[in-house]
Every structure is written in structure tokens, then in C-alpha cells.
Amino acid sequence: MNYIIDFDHTLYNTSELTKDMLTSLAKYISKVSQSNYDEILNTLSSKFSRSNNGIYDIYDLIAYFSPKYKFDKNEAIQIINNILFNGEKYLFEDSIPFLQYLKKQGHKIYILSYNENKVYFQTVKIAGSGLLEYVDGVTTTVTLKGNMPLDFSNCIFIDDKPKDLISIYRQKPLGIYRIRRINDTYSKIDMDLKIPEFTNLTKLQKKLESFKNIDER
After folding, report:
1. Is 135:111 a contact under the CB 8 Å cutoff?
2. Per residue in 107-139, is it b (16+ CB within 10 Å) or e — as a string?
3. Most buried among 27, 61, 62, 179, by the most CB within 10 A?
4. Residue 58 and residue 15: Cα distance in Å, rounded?
């Protein structure tokens, strides 16, 4: 069976990563520029946004503020890369056990990740998570996942983002599940479609195990 699993907010705590990147960057800029840390953190956090006037790429954010605060861009980039390269701590505690379970059952596992920023950022983030040894492949996309040229009828999808789930659902996949982690980015968004929802991967695993037990009877 082919399992196609989302990365951000499904396997990886991207919200915690964002917090650590911005706080580390603010500490560095505050020290170099002798400026107030809280003010800098608020400024960075306000600008790091998907809004029309925002910048939602950490490297572009560094380039944008470097002239204003007169800090070394390369030093700032190194701080961010060190965080990304050591990204295992941002994995949800159920991520690796869940992937190991799927592998033990003989399934193929692929990460399909939306990437609105530069490919480099998402590539480093996924590689730094330490998940590559547990999966059979990684693909990034800038479009809705339902628009990907995939054989949906032979794939089971696991995602957290309603827009992607809806687009995948319309392609009539073999299976589809929503991970709706408590208080995470998209957790407050309800969906009308009958897509099974689980608050974590452990609960989804138990459901899959129950299916296997039924099939073996």
C-alpha cells in the first residue's frame, strides 16, 4: 500500500520551529544592534506572515531586516540552518513510531509537502528532521495536493490542511485521513466532508490496526 503523508503539522511541529527561529534571530539581532529584544521579536513576528505585506520565508526575512539592523546576513543564516539541521526535536512524539508501524506492515511511505517558500528551506527542514530513513521518497508541491499527477486510487493520504484534504477527497483516493492535532494551525477549521479525523497519529494507528485485525479473521 502507498501512504502519502503530509509533513508540516502532521509529522512535524512547525509552529514550535517558527517560534524558535524567530526568538533565536531576535536574540542575535538584539545583541548585534544593541536594540530591545522584545521590540525586535515583535517586529520579526509581525512581518513573518502570509499576508500581502508579509514575508513568509525566513531567509527573505533576514535579507529584509539586515540593512535596518546592520547585522551579518551569513551569521543569521547560520543560526537558522543550525536550528533546521537539528530538527529532530520538532517531530511529534508519535511520528517515528507511526512510520515504523507502516514499514513493518510492508507499506511504501512518501512525504508530500506543500512548499510556498524556496525549495531549499523545505528540503533542509525535512532532511534535518531525520525522517528520510523512514520513508521511500519526498516530494514538494506549490499547488493543491489534489492537483498532483498521482494515482489516487492506489494511495492513502494523511494530512492536516482542509484545503488539501478537500482537493484530495475529490480525486477519490483509496483512503484519506485528517490529523487534527489539538490547538494546531488548522484544528479550529471544521469540514463538511466525511473524512475520518484523529487528534494524533497514535489514534490513527490503532484504527488501522483494528482494520488489520478484522481482515485477518
Report:
1. yes
2. eebebbbbbebeeebbebbbebbebeebbeebe
3. 179
4. 13
Cell matching residue 77: 543564516
Beta strands in the chain (DSSP E): 2-5, 108-114, 137-141, 155-159, 175-179, 197-198
Three cell numbers, residue 202? 497514535
pLDDT in tens, 102-111: 999 999 999 9
The answer to whether residues 166 and 17 touch, using CB atoms and an 8 Å cutoff, is no
- For residues 113 and 7, the answer to whether their CB atoms sit within 8 Å is yes
Half-sphere exposure (Cβ direction) of 80: Cα atoms closer than 13 Å: 25
Compute CA distances 90 → 29, 42, 46, whole Å. 24, 23, 23
pTM of the model: 0.92
As a whole number of angstroms, the distance between CA 152 and CA 166 comes to 13
**41-56 confidence digits (pLDDT tens):** 999 999 998 887 899 8
